[in-house]
Records
---
Amino acid sequence: PIVYKYDEVRPDPLANVPLAVRDGKQLLLKDVARVVVDHQPMVGDAIINDGPGLLLIVEKFPWANTLQVTRGVEAALDTLRPGLPDVEIDSTIFRPATFIEMSLHNFTMAMLIGAVLLIAVLVAFLFEWRVASISIVAMPLSLVAAGLVLYWRGATINVMILAGFVIALGAIVDDAIIDIENIVRRLREYRKSGRRDTSLARIILDASLEVRSAIVYATLIQVLAILPVFFLEGLSGAFFQPLVLSYALAMLASMLVALTVTPAMALILLRNVPLERRQSPLVPWLQRGYEAMLSRIIRTPRPAYITVGVIALAGLAIWPLLGQSLLPSFKERDFLMHWLTKPGTSWPEMNRITIQASKELRSIPGVRNFGAHIGQALIMDEVVGVNFGENWISVDPEVDYDKTVAKIQETVDGYPGLYRDVQTYLKERIREVLTGHSEAIVVRIYGDDVDVLHQLGAKVKEALTGIAGIIDLHVEFHENIPQIEVQVDLDKAFTYGLKPGDVRRAATTLVAHEEAGDIHIANRTYDVTVWSVPEARSSLTGIRELPIDLPRGGHVQLQQVADVSIRPTPNVIEHENLKRRIGVKANVRGRDLGSIVDEVEDALQKVKFPLGYYLELVGEYAERQAAQKNLLYVSIVAAIGVFLLLLTSFGSARLAMLSFLTLPSALVGGVLAAYLGDGVLSLGSLIGFLTVLGIAARNGILLIDHCQHLERYEGEAFGPGLVLRGARERISPILMTTLATALAIVPLVVAGNLPGHEIEHPMAVVILGGLVTSTLLNLFVVPSLYLRFGKAQNSAVLST
């Protein structure tokens, strides 16, 4: 390397480097070459806010915390600013931490509102402040215990983990309520009886043991119901496993708290408390009304059975009408636009188009800035030509999201002749991870001949044209572009003493440049490259006339030893599994992905393929179908496990089967709620159905177990009186559990599809609807079924 102690970069020092002595005269580098300070050949560029700029992309490790990394980067930039007074630095062109902060804020507000509503329900039902306090303390204690386990596992708090805690609140409340409600009820009965022969600790222990078995079985059933989610693979598993893990841990922690902490707190706080005078006026009123309604239903249960049948049929009829998608659209404020022109488009033309787009997009109210990278950087992460660009904009959180996105889409659609789209970063990343493409629908065509693949791509595109909801339909830009081809004539080269490698290296240096060394100026290092002058390589004739050094001295023109011509050459060739491939891609708008894919599959059936050529449909929908199939297979195993737990709990195959067969009816409310909502089932909705199944099974097992306890241990004769008493005593915990769960997720439903609610909102809608039907089922149908089919088993049990 050559080192110069200069403060500025100029070509003079290098231009004056002596090369040789000719005819007694010193020959300098500037005598035989132009020495200039310039940049490397441009294979890409960056446009920042309507003009050229420098785009710095900061990547983090997958396990790093985005908020911490962002704060660290911004602190480093603040440190640099004083030393760069004339440089404008904008770190908000793409800032994923903004979406995370908005999501956490929105979700935290929803949790706080839900917590206030939940506490109001507990106070209304439990009334006595000590009793309510025990339940209220049990809830955060269970969540903290689950959070500690997650912390020890190295997890970080995110929206999915918080969503798991929110969904688990109902079961956490139920665990706390069942235990404390039964303890309070037994204490009231004991004090009303006038007896004084049993200690407070004994009463609390017996009351807790009375429901312990039911709590354990109910918790295991709920955990088993969501077990299939743990077996999701790939992207789906990455999204939803943190949710179900936090849900399961909260459930198990709640069970331990209910079996240990709740009785201990009851012993401390309820000593000498006149509970018989502090009963909520709401509970007796509900019990009287419920008992009156249930007594009429169990006398003539047929109308209730018919109603359940009608509701189930309605659910079956509506299910096929629901659309399907993998994940919802995320309401990020950072948008990504792919910007592709025809292969062969020049770098200046791409700059011109991108700068024009920057000006138009920044004129939209709410668009704060614009950044774009064209082609690839010198050390790149994408192998693309200068015809490929990605535009980034960020939108002010204060403006209307949907209206601003519509204006952005309208502006982008105003650029015909190039492929463009508008996506949020998360959506684009999800698609890239799934298929390597950023579109929702990708039809890959495989074969051997490039020309045949192009023809089939055009046929597939034609077949898909006209399907409602499809946008941005195009065949991948696999096209022939003009390329200079140099074919060395071996005989002619041998005549001049040249080898093919000599010709190739010389031509490459003159046309594409070659690095010869480095020069160090002002503590910086610069490449020194050798290249021909621009006029020598600006035409085909100039390239043909390029001088090639001969081994024995002298020169020969390139055209004298090689055939130099322009030939059509594919701009890209893609292979997979030893087959060439081309893709037909599209996005969707205005319809659900599932219904569009159904039409796409029908259209593809009509396209005829030659022998050896075939297609593959990939994308979001394929991932959703794979995840759904995985869920189905594991759910069958989980369903068998639920049935075995019901059988073990009830001790009756008949009751276990009846309880098991009523569970699908509890899902109808979720189906109706999804249909009345956006009418689309995402993967989050399916997980909502699994959650509803667990809640329905939980309430059913606790109700039947209580009726069995009354008959076995309290001498209540089997009949309507037993069923009415068991249902009356369980209505308060069932309603508290249902209302607690519902009110915890109501803020998610009411707030709608806000940032941070995108996955949880459809799941909450399904759970809320399912809670309605599952609660009605457990309150009015399960008691009738128990009265009808529970006698034989109980008689057998008593006779033994």
---
Amino acid sequence: MVKKLFLAFLAFSLVITFTGCEEFTDWLLEGTTTTGVEGELELADGVEGDLVDANVYLYEDAHFDSSSAESEETDEKDEGTAAEFKLVVDAGEYYLLAWKDVDEDGAVSYGDLVGIYDGKFGADEPEMIEVTEEEMKDVGTIKMYEYEGGGGGGNGGGTGSIQVSSSPSGAAIYLDGTNTAQTTPATLTNVSEGSHNITLTLSGYYDLEKTVNVTKDQTSTVDATLEAKGGVVSVDVDAILFLDGWYINYFYTFNHDVFLTNCVITIPSVDPFIDSDEYGKRSRGQTYTTGNFAYDPNNDGVADGPIPTGTHILLFEGYESYSEQEFSIEKEISVPLRRM
């Protein structure tokens, strides 16, 4: 009997729903807790236009990777100068991007209206929104600003485009330090004439920066190959003699970010010794210099002659920062290389 009454009630609810009685459906659902994000959009002071057809997106990363987006159209109010939104999502951490594609080019570009949670798009880093189960997170009012495209178009000069691609694809694109909310491959439009910096970021790969020149009404191209983190560690070494060969410096550069735990130097006719100053984080591509070493076989703090020539050996030990894979690399240098 209970089952029959329930089925009858369910059928009645479906009839009401399909006959367009939204008020009754809302009444039935009243008290049900939904997980998601809600709030309002509002034009920032001095910004002209309207928010008709604006959209709100929730991303799982601060780079606004399109593959992780949840989107929802807004309901405009106040003659289009403001809008409301509500997105139903699973519990988790999200980054919000509100966007009106003013020029309808399918990309965030100069003149579009853009907003982020607790900041200004292009000027501030996106703030994370934490959504818990059975919570409709109210993020308040999102201010919508006119996107200036990293300096593009607003100076009265000409504009061009930048076509950006990478291997692998899916890298977030930054133009002059501003997150464009696009990923490779993509074309940045309405970019001002002149020199611009493109930065590509992708999880598991090193950031890559390139400089590109934009010409009016032309499309410039950036095609980049990203280098994966966690690869085989290698190191380039060099040395220099100075003060008539009585002192020596060593230089070294790693191909990956590493943590150096040990550096042992071997000079002909001198016992191997540990350079305790060469310890800690070492950044990929940056050249580091050891201290000045003198030939002091008596260990009395006095240089007893020129640095012995021949094969010098440097032993580097540590681990790669991303994979934590340990390494031990021995490098030989033929001295003298050059003198100062």
---
Amino acid sequence: MSEHAGAPVVVGVDGSRAALDAARWAAGTAVRLHAPLLLAHTYPDEATFYNGTAMMIDAQFIQELREDGNSMLDATTAAVLQDHPGLAVERDVRSGAAASHLIELSRAARIVALGAQGAGAVTDYLLGSTVLRTVNHAHSPVAVVRGEPATAAPDTRPIVVGVDGSQVSEKAVEEAFALASAFGVGLDVVHAWSGEKQHGLAHASKYVDWTAYEEGEKAIVSECLAGIRDEYPDVPVNAVTTQGVSADVLLRHATRAQLLVVGSHGRGKVLGALLGSVSQNLVHHAPCPVLVCRARQ
């Protein structure tokens, strides 16, 4: 898309294994998007080191932190270029708060990527708050990289996108189609809808025409796909409408996906408030990277 011309894929680097995995994923994505890769590292500024007697750490140590950061980026650059020779790799090293740094870079980014590790533990400079703040406030889509480490080899697994008919859901669909086309893979468009158990209507289910209800839910998916399928005729689409708990349904489909794409806010429980239980479930427990999309501010 023209709005993304020249926009880099940004990745936060902190020296951890999770950050290296995120960098490798970001590098592969940048190659497929014909975009440069921007490695971002944030080191603490002087204010971080004020102690109880208000004594500031000396400038030499701050310089050492900056040099350490550049060394991390040197190692990361070597790793991604081994996978993708010829990739344009840039860097941005500065002091301050990591989330603020990434949010600022997101203004001109195609995607911002960060690493995640373990059973829901987000690995970054601020023990999780950086990832959550970046996902919540970034101006570009944010990828929380989970699952098996990325490889340089092509991945033929599909991309999964969750839809609910909202405006940001449409944004997620646009991103998912663009990435599926760039990756050369199929797209699973998944919509989960609440039935009698989720609504607490088991006692009144005989009064509900669930067939008609389901048809209405299928129409949501059709509306999401109207027009955009013609823009990406190269992308095979598998549209799925199923009854169930949103997070459970999306996590189940994510087991066979290379990427799960969702919007940051939705119409009801499918793509609820960013920091709600569904989004946190996906970001913390998906078996693959999760791309969270929001309208650019």
---
Amino acid sequence: MFKTIRSITGQSGKMLTRATWYTVLEMIVNAAPAGLLFVVLASLLQEEVSLQRMIWWTVSLLVMFALQALLASRGQIEAQSNGASIMKDVRLRLGEHLRKLPMGYFSRRDQGEISHTLLANVDEVEMILTHLFNQVIGSIILPIVSAVFLLFIDWRLALAVIISVPLALPLLFWSQHLMGKRSMKRQAAAAALQSRLLEYIQTIRLIKAHNQTGQRFTRLDQAMARLRDDSIRVEVITSPVVMLFSMILELGFVVLLLTGTYLLEGGLLDTSIFFIFLAVSMKFYQPLRSAGTALTQMRFMASAGERIRELFAQEALPEPKHPRLPNTFNIELENVDFAYGDKKILNGIQFQVPENNLVALVGPSGAGKSTIAGLISRFWDINGGAVKIGGIDVREMQSEELLAMISTVQQQPYLFNESIEANIRKGKPNATIEEVIEAAQAAHCHEFIIRLPQGYDTVAGEGGAALSGGERQRIAIARAMLKNAPIVVLDEATASLDPENEVYLQRAINKLAQNKTVLVIAHRLKTIQSADRILVVDKGKIIEVGRHVELVTQNGLYHRLWLEQQRLGGWRIKGGSSEGTKRA
């Protein structure tokens, strides 16, 4: 458990040392009144009490309480501030690590599972550092100090008090083992629920449109039921063991009563000492019970640490020891092979995009076009061959330097829940407002932005929900223009747009592509008729290469796709009928 926490926090875990020492000193001071009580009882039984002594004892007791409160306060403040600081660093490291992971990791994991690790699991580990750790330390130190004090007074009664501890400890270890097994299942159930919640919220419009609210809510309800059942199992399995641990601990008090009574009757024990043991023993058992409960909580939350450690263990894309930068920006793929796990996606892909040229990739869905674009940005590492920019393998470039060279506009661009100005400025964080407006004007989105209620200060909404699809695309183009990278990748950026937005978007793309190396993934073939070269991709291979006028005359896949799009472009829906009728 503690090894897991150390592996997550690293050397920064040492920041809790001061808080631990405050807790140790607090527990020592906490045990001090027992020594004062021993003196008071001895004086009372010997009738050696005076007003001066009572005042001295009272003042001493007040000082002890004040010192204990001060140490407790300082320890809590140190634990809270340092624990929060440690976990802030962990969150930053997690974000940085996620940024360096290949995209394949995100395609294998649900968004809800990842967000659960980043949010809930990190919060649980933070709770260990800021609260539970010092609580357990204090709950162990106080009984140890009390036991030393009792052994100093009378070793016989001290053994009677302590004897139940070794008998109870196996139950505590057992509860930790049980919690470790069940907590991982409970964590998985919580992550699954997070995924279903995200799915339900993100697709609520689609669910309503298809009248699937009941069916989808059933999936969510099942995830909730699983989490409920796993949570109940955790409590049902571990709680009786922890309660039994506490009961066996308390048996030591019974042994103390029996032993003390026997020694008193035999004249082998002073009454004041017996009273001291009765009073102090309560301080001995109660912290141990608290320690048992806290340790069980920690073991449960440590499973959250295991999930964080698993995320850190995911292998990031390696960075070069001696990075290189290209002087030119032509793109070259040399006999590239790529697979998702055992599924082969690309096989022997080979082509060039000369600098300041526009090359288009076309083909059916699932042919591997977007994968090729992702490999140029090194979202994944290839299985064979090489991807080069300016003659340099992308694996020999720093990831940040590589991504700085490439502007990507996707079919469904994502806008952050920030102002439109802030979204455009993502392309160049230090851009002035004048530069932002200039990019918006070039992307033909300035006109609709200034008509919005707050203009450039209008919040785009989560994912750009406050804007239409065409408006989101044009803002994405403005963002890419502001970045002004020498390489532009357009991943079906004009797909599924209405004619008016397509005209604006095509003008914006033409400006964006000026004097750039451009790779276009196109669904609408009419948008890439002027491309310098067109590559037809099917089943992970390039099967045709040429210009539009060349490919359209060949009896190949491009020719068939062109004819199909021309045919579909001449169809319309006839009112009340599910069949199309060709226009005259």
